[in-house]
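Lab manual, section 2.4: Encoding a predicted structure.

Procedure: take the sequence of the chain (464 residues), apply the prediction step described in section 2.3, and record the output as structure tokens. A sample record is shown.
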Amino acid sequence: MRKVDVSVSLRECSCIASKTLTCGLSSFQQTGKGLLQVMLKQGKQWKSMCKGLVLGTLLTTCMILLYSYAAPPHQLSLQEIPVPYSCSYKPAHARNVPRMNGSHFTSELSKICTPKEDIMFMKTHKTASSTILNILFRFGQKHRLKFAFPNGRNDFYYPSYFDRSQVKDYRPGMCFNIVCNHMRFNYEEVHKLLPEDTIYFTILRNPAYLFESSFHYFGRVIPFTWKISGEDKLAEFLREPNRYYDPSGFNSHYLKNLLFFDFGYDNNLDINDPKVKKHIKTIDERFHLVMLLEHFDESLILLKDVMCWDLDDILYFKLNVRKDSTVSRMTGDLYEKATNWNKIDSMLYQYFNATFWKKVERYGFERMEHDVEELRRRNDNMQSICIDGGHPVDANAIQEASLKPWQPLGERSIMGYNLKKNISKKHRKLCRKMLTPELQYLSELGVNLWITKLWSYIRDLLKW
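Recorded output:
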């Protein structure tokens, strides 16, 4: 029998095992190294995402604070120099305005009036006020009037109270024709800025629908709404508003009696507080006309009459309009809750709804019907001349940057327009002006919107 060299066999087995182990360890090391690289790569991605999130949050917070609470320029005690009775620099031509005699128009009863050029428009939130602003911008440009504009932004340091020192290049005694940007109204300061013959007007909206629009548009910049759960945050808020609402919370004024707040009053007063009725009466005494969004065309006809303007001066396209898919359909129950939550605004609206129809009655119902029909006919004609497709389009479908409206944070819900090609020379300039959104028009008029533009740049950078 042949002897087997056990020692050799053991050495061979040991060598094989050693190689196998070495290969296994090498394979494990390579696999581990690969896993480690993947984990490090993912870690870097998460770290980058976290940095971006933190940076974005910090920048957003800083910009919101800067934009909303930037300290207005401090006004030192200035020598009071009275503003002239009128700041109209050229003699305006008087014109005849027809009146009604029974059911017929007659030139015999026409009145002679002079077009008004000194104007204070109290721009309220979510009330089609951007459309009115476009009308005022065009009128001011046409007649070379001087606007009182804010400096660096598109509002007068809202929600701070208006102060004359917030007006760009203001000096006591200076003449300004028009003030129309967002502000928290302060009559004493506005009165010292503008001449005595100034016409004051504003616009209101049904408070329930205004609340819904404000909740949608401003919700992302109102911190106490962030904790509201569920898909329908509006309905959840109205179910228990006092559970979420914080009167001292950041931007809380947007969600309770916003109109009353804009006029400079305490939006958290009790509805039975006698100051509520007193303040509403004061608004009535100070404003020559209070328009209603729900009767916009009739309101414009009354404005034309108060201002002694022509129909051409009040032609318009609806600007800053939300697309239907983002508009909540308020049920009867939600409507009732929203109305009750905004009781002071509801009282304000009811009061001026009554005064509005008294003005229409004095104007003449048949005359109003005739003039509204003519205004709509002229608007339809301009729409066919100016607007590509004849209707507004989604934000992503707007072709020119100069026609893109400002969007609410995190959304693209505000619609805009595309200008028709090959518009006749006669209408080309007017069409573009009628379609230009508020911020772009302000820039055209020489307003330095550096704060607004910085915020817009950051939002675009972060895709917000």
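Check your result against the sample. The two ends are 89 Å apart (CA to CA).
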